[in-house]
Amino acid sequence: MTDFSEELAALDALTLRRTRRVVDSPCAPELVVDGRRILAFCSNDYLGLANDPALVAAAQEGARLYGLGAGASPLITGHMAPHAALQRRLAAFTGMERALLFSTGYLANLGVVPALVARGDAIFSDRLNHASLIDAAKLARAELHVYPHCDLAALDAALAASSAKRKLIVTDAVFSMDGDLAPLPDLLALAGRHDAWLLVDDAHGFGVLGPQGRGSAAHFGLASPRLLVMGTLGKAAGAAGAFVAGAENAIEWILQKARTYIFSTAEPPLIAHALLTGIDLIEQGDARRRHLAALIAQLRGTLQLKRWKLLPSHTAIQPLLIGDNAETMAVANKLFERGLWVPGIRPPTVPAGTARLRITLSAAHSGAQVEALVAALMQLEREPA
Ligand SMILES: *Cc1c(COP(=O)(O)O)cnc(C)c1O
Do 263 and 320 share a domain, yes or no? Predict the structure, then answer.
């Protein structure tokens, strides 16, 4: 019997061992880590809502009204008034007929994809899709076609060659490690031409992109009965959970079939109650989104590097490509010593040879904080490794 010591040593040898740090303060640009104040560029709290006083107050009110736990799955007694209200609010906000809540985005994808397709069907998945979509495809047992990143011609050919009964295209809207946007209008057009469904994972677009933060589909002005959107509520929405939205029958079918919905305890009602305020804050959040856009422009306009490269992203995810695993982690560690926290991302999360710092910006950051990061990065690049 192995005790995994060799396996763990192999991870160490490749600088692939993952570690955690304990944060002892609320999610914000300034964190307390091991008693030290650290300026962080790591969270997906793009609008700075995770510790917003109005959201925290709404959660407290939710706890007073509904207690803590839901006590059961939604199809037993766990579907409570705030869950129902939030589902209606999310459907209206995203312009879809109906929405269904899940406990996390990971569980939403794991439930939705196998509900939509099974053996005899086919999934067409972008090579850079999030791990939850990759795992969901395995669970579904449908034939899997992985197409090169945003390669519409390859996708078109794969769809044309498929004789599957039902076809499902799945894509991140904003790619989580690259920050670029999928060509959603073209993908929807292909879905139409080949009678396929399109499932868009909007984890990083919901709340940030589109008018009033209504998400990536709204950003492109998309509407179609074959479009399903999965949005997460733990990123820009500042809380936890996720939803899938789409046409009435498709959502009803997912409710009937998604095992991660049926066999899992409903999200705590105080979270759903708080998120009703969270969606209001997103809707009224144009000033936050404008400030975030200004910070993105500041970073891209002032960071001047020779060897390392900012990937061409216009979203809050600003990956700095370094390439080598060891150098990437060394830079991340040096930044941390200086009081700046930017996570290094290595394979298998990203392809081999493309290790990077994943800088994420939030409306809660200040221009001075971005300036501090830019100065430190330019200095570290010039230092000998
Ligand atoms: C974070 C993320 C998820 C998972 O959402 P959680 O609510 O954190 O489980 C799914 N898809 C993408 C693209 C993500 O970035």
Answer: no
Residues 63 and 180 in one domain: yes
Atom of ligand 1 nearest to the CA of 232: 7
Same domain, 66 and 171: yes
Cα separation, 138 vs 119, in Å, equals 11
The CA distance from 207 to 199, in Å, is: 18
CA-nearest residue for atom 1, ligand 1, is: 203
- When pLDDT is averaged across residues 319-335 and rounded to a whole number, the result is 95
CB 260 within 8 A of CB 111: yes
Compute the distance from residue 105 Cα to the ligand 1 centre, in Å: 5
Token pair for 358: 């994943």
User: pLDDT by residue (tens digit) across 9-45?
Assistant: 999 998 788 889 999 999 999 999 999 999 999 999 9
**176 flagged as catalytic:** yes
Q: What are the tokens at 253?
A: 């079918």
Inside any domain, residue 2 = no
Q: How confident is the model at residue 2 (pLDDT cuts 50, 70, 90)?
A: confident
| 378 touches 342 (CB < 8 A) | no
Which of 102, 130, 177, 209 most suits a substitution to test ligand 1, by most atoms within 8 Å of the C-beta?
A: 130
Angle at 346 between CA 343 and CA 349, to 5 degrees: 100
Q: CATH number of the domain at 373, please.
A: 3.90.1150.10
No. of H helices and E strands in the chain? 14, 14
State the pLDDT at residue 1: 73
Q: Are residues 137 and 194 in the same domain?
A: yes
Find the domain containing 57 and state its range.
53-283
Is position 5 within any domain?
no
pLDDT of residue 385: 64
Does the active-site annotation cover 5?
Answer: no
Q: Is the dihedral of CA 125, 130, 133, 136 positive or negative?
A: positive
Find residue 182's DSSP bridge partners: none
- Overall average pLDDT of the 149-175 stretch: 98
